[in-house]
Amino acid sequence: MKKEPLAFLVVESQAHRHSSHPSLGIGDVMTTKKSTDKNQDKQAGITQEGRFYSADRLHAMHDMMLFIRRFEEKAGQMYGLKKIGGFCHLCNGQEAVCVGMEEASEPTDYMMTSYRDHGHILARGSDATAIMAELLGRAGGIVGGKGGSMHMFDVTKNFAGGNGIVGEQVPIGIGFAFASQYRDDKRVSITIMGDGGVNQGAVYESFNMAALWKLPVVFVIENNQYAMGTSLSRASAETHLYKRGISFKVPGIQVDGMDVLEVERKMAEAIEHARSGQGPIIVEMMTYRYRGHSMSDPATYRTRDEVDEWRTGRDPIARLQLQMIAAGLATEEEFKQKDKDIKKEVNDVAKAAEAQPEPDLSVMWDDILNDEIPNAYPYPRQVG
Amino acid sequence: MAKITYREALNQAMCQEMERDDRVFLMGEEVAQYNGAYKVSQGMLDKFGPRRVIDTPITELGFAGLGVGAAMAGLRPVIEFMTWNFAILAADQIVNAAAKMKYMTGGQYDCPMVFRGAGGAAARVSSQHSQAFENWYANIPGLKVVMPSNPADAKGLLAASIRDNDTVIFIENEINYGDVGEVPEGEYIIPLGKAEIKRVGKDITLIAHSRMTGYALMAAEELAKMGIDAEVVDPRTIRPLDEATILASVAKTNRAVVIEEGWRFAGIGAEISARIMEKAFDDLDAPVVRVTGKDVPMPYAANLERHALPSVAEIVEAARVTCNRA
Ligand SMILES: Cc1ncc(C[n+]2csc(CCOP(=O)(O)OP(=O)(O)O)c2C)c(N)n1
Ligand SMILES: [Mg+2]
Hints:
The structure holds 2 protein chains of 2 kinds. By secondary structure, chain A is an alpha/beta fold. Chain A has a single domain (70-356), classed as 3-Layer(aba) Sandwich (Rossmann fold), CATH 3.40.50. Chain A is built from 12 helices and 10 strands. In chain A, the strands form 3 sheets. In chain A, strands 4-3-5-6-10-9 form a 6-stranded parallel beta sheet, sandwiched between helices. In chain A, helix 3 packs across helix 9 (260-275). Chain A is globular. By secondary structure, chain B is of the alpha/beta class. Chain B folds into 2 domains: 2-183, Rossmann fold, CATH 3.40.50; 196-322, 3-Layer(aba) Sandwich (Rossmann fold). In chain B, strand 10, helix 8 and strand 11 (230-234) form a beta-alpha-beta unit. In chain B, helix 3 runs parallel beside helix 4, helix 8 crosses helix 12 and helix 9 (243-253) packs across helix 10 (268-280). The radius of gyration of chain B is 20 Å and the shape is globular. Chain B starts with a strand and ends with a helix. The A-B interface holds A 85-87, 134, 137-138, 141, 145-148, 150-151, 163-167, 196-197, 199-201, 227-230, 234-236, 301, 358-359, 361, 363-365, 368, 377-378, 382-384 and B 29-30, 33-34, 37, 55-59, 61-62, 85-86, 88-89, 122-129, 264-265, 290, 294-297, 299-304, 307-308.
């Protein structure tokens, strides 16, 4: 029996619809609507693998994923117009990882990632206008216009970047975990890396120390199958990345990173493992980036069919929409309206960000040192 | 002579050396199937095959060390860093291993190899991706540091670096990759340790390397309009430095401005101006002035980035002030 293609709502604007793609099974979706309840909608939801998600929560997850998708598309456009410069890495396709992970964590947990950071910081709840302003190099950017796309940080959200050197955030991540253990404040460090980044030597030094000292860290590997133009199997002898901790006694699990509910559920388990003092754990998220590595990458190293299979066969937003419709929690019409609203919201964000001035030139000298030493060369804030 | 780009010139040099010497191979991230992150190794996989053009995982420390070992075992590695910012991960192998190997083995082992890649500021990539590190490596005995400023130099200097029997740090410039210039066809070698006078002048010497050479040449044109005839010297090899060419120029002009994109403190300009002071003090009619990048990590915002980098206007102003001093 042929089922509807998954992306019937065309949430990925460049998607090519293939009716030959099977939709994902939604047999595990079960409505929990209590028809006797007066306040029906509040009680409605989906239970997956024994975990209940209320309609409100599902809507929030959906809206955030869609917001990230539209935000990234806008960023891509602005880049095309040369309003954004430098390296700009979009996360289209990976939204379920960003949102599911955020849903499973506490706001006090630490999170850090690489340069592919827009989706994560948006999911974390940072101000979208400040993030767009950062992309545009404006005064109100989330790091004042100094970092751009690759260096999004928000200390108020415990989000520590935004790291441009592949693998660099991994030892930093166990440092946050160490601080948490040191103070015994039960915070978990969610340390995210790519399938390329996982090969850096410092990652294994980190696995070992984290296991040795039972540090509360979840190592998340966003396996989007490529590191720039290098496919996983061309760079890794062991392609099951969740097994990479075996010789360090770091357990690992593999997760369908295109299913926001699975991401949330498995991530919640992993975070609980770390928080309860059992030490580090690896979570390999199977996902895919729809766009090139960065804006300058035409991504000719992969086939159209491969991209289509992920985009229209496994899209995380379309998948959740389908589940929610099947569960009677929303209609196609509502999702279409929501998409319009979110697009407008993103446009407003972009407009507000663009209306901001560039940073004041004096800002260039700020934030280099805390304790400037005024009478010794090189003198603070001076040329020569 | 054909007009080709700086990146094509580098490609020609590598192909030329790989054709004549089977010991030479190219290894780095995205160098083979992707034809190089900046397309410097375009077509080389097709030409030489996967035995000699090798994609690596993202493991700078590891493949730099592999290069050191292969060089010690008699091969001639060309190790590409996508940019020199990432080579910091490999600094141990470069500084502690490659640079020291001959000395600490009493001459038993050599490390004839090239570490190469893009250095300096790129456009709008913020603090971690826009940095000049030539002064780090130039400080190390056992290393040679080479930086071409135009396509012809890129070809001749890279070929010489590959033939050289020591470890060469070869720093290209990302913004220069697309520059077009006349480049000699066929085998072309520029000896290391030789500066070149890029513009002859009599009133002031502008000393600049890599991308700043182009800036110095533009500044010289501006200065000409003011009646100041500037000579532009490009050291090309940073270490060892051809100070004879620099000192001869200063003996003629009696004034010098040293320009570099990187930070001023302990930079290349510090070394060059110290040598001029030590060796040509009596030739100077004015103190040597340095034009450098501002003493800040590179910011992303377009206006801040412009402000942080040296400009042609700053070079012109420094030269003008230097010329007006008695
Ligand atoms: C140490 C280092 N080497 C190389 C690079 C250049 N680079 C940037 S991203 C990237 C690929 C990383 O791929 P992956 O870890 O899979 O993350 P993804 O981009 O897929 O999110 C490379 C090689 C870098 N930034 N840092
Ligand atoms: Mg990847």
